[in-house]
Amino acid sequence: MKTFFISAFIVCMFQIGNAQKAPDTPETPTNIVANHGNYSEGGNTSVSISHTDDAYKLKASFPQSREARLKELIQNTLGDKNLNIRKGYSKWSNNEKVYEVKLTQTTLRIWIDLNIASTNLIEKFEALGHDAKTIISGSNINVEKARMQREADRMRREANRMQQEVKRLEQQAARETKRVEREMKQQNERVQRDAKRLEIEAKRLDMEAKRVEKRARHKGGISSYIKRLLDDAKTIYTGTSGSDLNWIWPSVQEDLLAAFLEDEFVTSTSKVAFTAEKDHMYVDGVELTEAQSKKYSAILRKAGIKTNADFSFYKKGDHIVIIGLNAKIKKTFNDLYKQGFIASTDEAVKLLINGNSIVQNGTNLSSDKVAAINTILSDNGIIPAPGKYLEMKKAGSYRLGYSTGTKGIVGTWIEED
Q1: What's the pLDDT tens digit per position in 208-256?
Q2: What is each CA distance from 34 to 37, 47, 216, 287, 318, in whole angstroms?
Q3: Beta strands in 203-318 (DSSP E)
Q4: Residue 87 CB neighbour total at 10 angstroms
Q5: First vs last Cα of the chain: how many Å apart?
Q6: What is the annotated signal peptide range for this record (predicted)?
Q7: Contacts for 347 with CB less than 8 Å, ≥ 6 apart
Q8: Residue 16: CB partners within 8 Å, gap ≥ 6?
Q9: What does the alpha-carbon distance between residue 293 and residue 281 come to, in Å, rounded to a whole number?
């Protein structure tokens, strides 16, 4: 049995039929040099970035007015552990000679050895260089954050368009083959090659979109799909206590929002973006320290949320969206069947799991059944929320999340072959 897991933000749910996995595209050495310069605020600014196979380097000069913001950015990224302050400059470096950052009143030098540094450290320095360039050029980081999110959305739309084009080309090939198989053989092979090339490019763009979207999310960005859900009436959260219904989320949300205010990550709880990814957590674009992460991990564990799996919580006014990727969906339906809540494990069933209520195949369940099913959901890592649904279309075909149209879902989609 082969199982496919398509998780997180999936909009168009279709498969590219019977296409074998294309060979990985070989990596090519990179040697990228970018320069930028202008004159503003009474002084010259220039930025030179070199990104080769061996090292990432940034050299910049700027008006003295940029120094404070740059120093704050570097300290927020690297901390003060490896900071050496001397007359006229500040320098961050470690004993292993992996990286060095030197900041004066009007210059900045960043260097990292790509052969030694870890992947996480390289990503951190690339993000540091990007944000430093934004500050030096005088741009607003919030504006840049929004631009990045728009770029991620554009890339995703282009990937979807290419996937549709793949399907169209394959259908065209089938029709042409039936009409004149011998005459159109060469053309059919060419169309198939084009389709395969487009499929590979679509996958590459989709992966790139996810990478850019991830960086934007770390900076507090919110995807267009989540924004639409936060404006949808079905995601309104009343704040009613769920203790009598074994719904644990109300108390967890209360603890999270109180902690956000206490730790001064937010000044108001009317709009919040919180995400946890493996060993990293972010609140409105601010990365938590190790000590802070332990605090919030404890809060999440109260809801049965595993901190080693991706989890996101968004709030806008009275609307909330909760996405978790550690759910045991197939086991949930087995448990529902064993306790008599569904007739079998291979017949279609859909439950609207709002927390305070559950609608099963269009029928509102009693509070006793809601409490019992909420317990089963919690035991299997599923967090009920307004507008959320759990569905078994047939044995081996499952959905968990929020609908975004007739065929779209934000959440988890599982198909077993």
Answers
A1: 666 666 666 666 678 888 999 999 999 999 866 656 899 989 999 999 9
A2: 10, 8, 22, 28, 45
A3: 271-277, 280-283, 286-287, 311-316
A4: 4
A5: 6
A6: 1-21
A7: 392, 394
A8: 163, 166, 167, 170, 199
A9: 6
3-state helix, strand, coil in the chain (%, to 5): 40, 25, 35
Average of per-residue pLDDT across 284-289: 90
pTM summary value: 0.52
Residues in the chain: 417
Mean pLDDT computed over every residue of the chain: 83
Q: Which two structure tokens, joined as six digits, stand for 203?
A: 């996958």
Sheet holding 83-86, edge to edge: 32-40, 43-51, 55-61, 107-113, 99-104, 89-93, 83-86
The four Cα atoms 193, 197, 203, 208 give a dihedral, to 10 degrees, of 180
The candidate with the shortest Cα–Cα distance to 407, out of 17, 15, 11, is 11
* DSSP-H helix ranges across 324-366: 329-338
Give the pair of three-digit tokens for residue 384: 């009920």
Cα–Cα distance for residue pair 224/216, rounded to 1 Å: 12
- pLDDT tier, 317 (very low <50, low <70, confident <90, very high otherwise): very high
CA distances to 43, 130, 356 from 39, in Å? 6, 19, 59
Describe the strand order of the beta sheet including 358-360 as a list of residue ranges: 3-10, 409-416, 397-403, 389-394, 349-353, 358-360, 363-364
Residue 254 structure tokens: 């209360």
Here the tokens at position 111 are 């260097």
Tokens of 96: 């292993």
Distances in Å between the Cα of 228 and the Cα atoms of 51, 149, 319 are 38, 14, 11
Q: Which two tokens stand for residue 201?
A: 């490019």
**Distance in angstroms (rounded) separating the CA atoms of residues 194 and 292:** 50
- Structure-token pair, residue 238: 């009343």
